[in-house]
Every structure is written in structure tokens, then in C-alpha cells.
């Protein structure tokens, strides 16, 4: 089973962390967490540099979230999040504790934004205000596979009235007319190699299943990774065959965290405190 609830190490995260540390060098030791929020759907941070980052809140990955004593073990630093060093958060990004890992990814996302500002973007292109899902070319004979119930893309796939598959851990997130296309997680290894287009939720970074999925995709498959959790630097994604990365850029950090603290989702962020971004490898004639 490739898609499951077991938290696994992520080479993509490890390599991105190393890239950020090397890029920022000693500057990273002067960076601190100014504010941190854990929301219902997403969690985010603001650095003392003014840069912000975001990640999905992995509520479903925390079976202990049913009583106070066990929930405390899932996020042991609550109340002291701004007192922790950036380096500690980056270590957490490779942790096997889902909530700590998510907060580590949010910090990595904020640091990635800082890296872009200082020019570490020489080998990829980024277009702000472009939804990566709008750049997915679906011909009549294209067989798409969706990893995660990504609502907007499910709507597009259903409107085509063509076959597709969606692999999802929680069937309750699927509407009745989407259930006929459902593939259980233990069939991931069978369905992914059939995909002409493979769209993967960025939350696979949190449970560490992304690399395993990418490994079994065909070389000619168009691979797209999307979602706020995928808002980190793209190099390690492209190295593993991802063609398009669709994340977010935070335009109004404090407003973004205020929205998350009030239970906001992505729909409450876009056009107000965040914008979607399309990230692709920089190469002549590249066509997303």
C-alpha cells in the first residue's frame, strides 16, 4: 500500500531543507518565528523577515485528537511556538509526528518565499495568479488519476464524462456521484501506472507517500502536485518527475493567519491574503 496513514520520511523535504539552508547560509540563524497559527484546515507561520508559509493541518492523521491528554502529545509545544528556533522546525519537517511535521513544512514554505525574494529562482519559472489545474491538458483519450479528493479538479473530471480514478483515504470526502470513480488506497500501485495525467495533493508530503507514488508513475505521465502544502521550493519535485507544481504565495501574512485562526479554508484566502502560483522547470519551449 503506497497511500496510507503511516508517516514516512520524505527525501523531497530533506533535500529542500538542505537547499534552503545552503542558500540562506548564516542568515538562517537570525530568522525567528513571529507568529504561528494552527487552524482547522491549514496552519501557518510568519517569520521576523515578514515572509509567511502555510501547510495543511493533518487532523485526520491524528487519531489521538479525541481527548486533551493524548492530543497534547501530538503538539507538545503549544503555547511556545514562537519560542522555537527555525532549525528546530526544519527538523520537525522530517518528524513522524504529523502536526509537528506540518508546522515544519509551513516554516519551510516561509523560508522558500524568502529564498525566492533573494533570487534563488534561476532554474524554474513561477507565474502568480495561475491555477496549476487550469494548465492540465485533458484530451479525449486522456486517462486522469487523482490522488486525494481535490474538489475543483473532481468537478472538471466529472464534467468531461470520461473515465477517471480518484484514490482517497477518506471516502466521506467524496460526493455520491464521485464514488463510482473511487479506488481504495491499497490499489494505488495498480492504478497510478495507468495514468496519462496524475494529479497529486500536496498533503502526501505530510504522510510521506509522495515519493512512492512518483516512483511508479510512467515516464510519459504528466505529473502535477497541487495544494498549499506544496508551496516550498520545487527542485526536489522536478528531480523526481513532477512537471507542474501548484502552490500558494502569501500576499498579506497577518490577514492570512487571522483567517486560518477563524477556521478559514483556501476559498477564504485566495484573492484576499494569498494567490495561487504555477511553478514549472525553466526550459526552452516548456509547455505546461
How would you describe what is shown here?
- The chain has an eight-stranded mixed sheet with strand order 4-11-10-9-8-5-6-7. Strands 1-2-3 form a three-stranded antiparallel sheet.
- It has 288 residues and is of the alpha/beta class.
- It has two domains: 11-117, Enolase-like, domain 1; 124-281, Rossmann fold (3-Layer(aba) Sandwich), CATH 3.40.50.11590.
- The longest helix has 20 residues, at 98-117.
- Helices cover 32% and strands 19% of the residues.
User: What is the spatial order of strands in the main beta sheet?
Assistant: 4-11-10-9-8-5-6-7
- Main beta-sheet annotation: 8 strands, mixed
Strand content: 15-25%
DSSP summary: helix tally: 11
**Given the C-alpha coordinates, what overall shape results?**
globular
Tally of extended strands?
A: 11
User: What pattern of helices and strands is seen along the backbone?
Assistant: HEEEHHHEEHEEHEHHEHEHHE
Distance between the termini: 30 Å
* Residue-averaged pLDDT: 90
Count of domains: 2
Low-confidence stretches: none
| CATH architectural designation of the largest domain | 3-Layer(aba) Sandwich
**Structural class of the helix and strand makeup?**
alpha/beta
Q: What's the Cα radius of gyration?
A: 18 Å
